[in-house]
Specification:
9 helices, ABC transporter, Rossmann fold, ABC_transporter-like_ATP-bd, binds adenosine-5'-triphosphate, globular, transport, ATP hydrolysis activity, 2 domains
C-alpha cells in the first residue's frame, strides 16, 4: 500500500544547475530518411546530483547523451554545462560507454589507458601518476596496472574505463548503459562502485540505463522518457535512504513502490502515452 505519493520530482531548487537541457530536439536526416529521435527535452541536473534516465528502447537516450557530450549537434534547443553552451566535447565532462571492449586501447596497459586523457589534457607527469594511482585504487585495480585489457574480465575492463573517467576529474560524468554487457553479480558490484565514487568525489553523474531496478537503486531522481519522438514523461524523486546496499535497499517496500511506478511509466511510454502539454 502506497503511503507516500510518488510523483513528479521537484526541481532541485537549492542545487546550482550543473547541466541544463533546454528544448532539445534532434532530427536525423540523410539518405532520403528523416528520423525525429528527440522532440523536446527539458530538464536540469543539479551540481553533485546522481540522476538516472530510463526509457523504452529507441527512445533517444544515446542521442540525448551524445548531444550533451557535444559529440552530436542538436537540431534545436541547447545544452548548457556550468553556464556555458555546449558546442563540442566540453573539458569538464567524461563519458563511460557500454562497450568497454572498444573504448580501451588493447595495445596499452591499464595504467597507460587511464593516463592517456590526462596526457591530452597536458597534466604534468607527477600529477598524472598520482591521479592514475588514486583512480585505480578507487576501483580496486592497483594490482592490474601493468596488465593489458585482454587479460582482464569484462567487469574489470569496465572498471578501467571508470578509472579513466574518474582520473580525468570531470565535473559531469555521463554513463551510457555502462553495465549492460556484464553479468548480474558484476553489475551489482559496479553499481555500488558508482555510488561510492559519486559520494566520495562529489561528481555529478547522469546515468542512462534500460534497467528500471538499476535506475531506482542508483539515482536520487529518475527521468522517464517517452517513446520516440521523445519528451520527458515524468521526473521521479527516489526518496530512499542515501546509504544503500543491494540487499537492504532492494528489499524495502518503498523500493518496490518506486520500481512499480517507473515500470508503469515505461509501459505507458511503450504504448505511446505522452504527457498532456
Ligand atoms: N545516426 C542515426 N541516423 C538515423 N537515425 C538514427 C541514428 N542514430 C539513432 N537513430 C534513430 O533515433 C532513434 C533513437 O535512437 P537512440 O539510439 O538514441 O535510442 P536509445 O534510446 O538509446 O535506444 P536503445 O535503448 O535501444 O539503445 C531511433 O529511432 C534510431 O533508429
Amino acid at each position: 500500500m502506497t503511503t507516500t505519493p510518488i510523483g513528479a520530482a521537484a526541481r532541485p531548487e537549492t542545487a546550482t544547475a550543473m547541466l541544463d537541457v533546454r528544448g532539445l530536439k534532434k532530427v536525423y536526416e540523410g539518405r532520403g530518411r528523416t528520423v525525429e529521435a528527440v522532440r523536446d527535452l527539458t530538464f536540469t541536473v543539479g551540481s553533485g546530483e546522481l540522476v538516472c534516465i530510463v526509457g523504452p528502447s529507441g527512445a533517444g537516450k544515446t542521442t540525448l547523451l551524445r548531444c550533451i557530450a557535444g559529440l552530436l549537434d542538436c537540431t534545436s534547443g541547447e545544452v548548457v554545462l556550468e553556464g556555458e553552451k555546449v558546442t563540442g566535447p566540453p573539458p569538464g565532462m567524461a563519458v563511460v560507454f557500454q562497450e568497454y571492449g572498444r573504448s580501451l586501447f588493447p595495445w596499452m596497459t591499464v595504467r597507460q589507458n587511464v593516463e592517456l586523457p590526462l596526457k591530452e589534457k597536458k597534466v604534468p607527469k607527477a600529477e598524472r601518476r598520482r591521479l592514475v594511482q588514486e583512480a585505480l585504487e578507487a576501483v580496486g585495480l592497483s594490482e592490474a596496472q601493468d596488465a593489458h585489457p585482454f587479460q582482464l574480465s569484462g567487469g574489470m575492463q569496465q572498471r578501467v574505463a571508470i578509472a579513466r573517467a574518474v582520473a580525468y576529474e570531470p565535473h559531469l560524468l555521463l554513463m551510457d548503459e555502462p553495465f549492460a554487457a556484464v553479468d548480474a553479480q558484476t553489475r551489482a558490484d559496479l553499481e555500488d562502485l558508482v555510488r561510492s565514487l559519486w559520494k566520495r568525489l562529489g561528481v555529478t553523474v547522469l546515468f542512462v540505463t534500460h534497467d528500471i531496478d538499476e535506475a531506482v537503486y542508483l539515482g536520487r531522481r529518475v527521468i522517464v522518457l517517452s517513446s520516440s519522438p521523445t519528451v520527458v514523461l515524468e521526473e521521479v524523486t527516489v526518496d530512499l535512504p542515501d546509504e544503500r546496499d543491494q540487499l537492504t535497499t532492494r528489499s524495502l517496500p518503498r523500493f518496490a513502490e518506486l520500481r512499480g511506478h517507473v515500470y508503469e511509466l515505461v509501459q505507458q511510454a511503450k504504448s505511446g502515452h505522452r504527457p498532456a502539454s
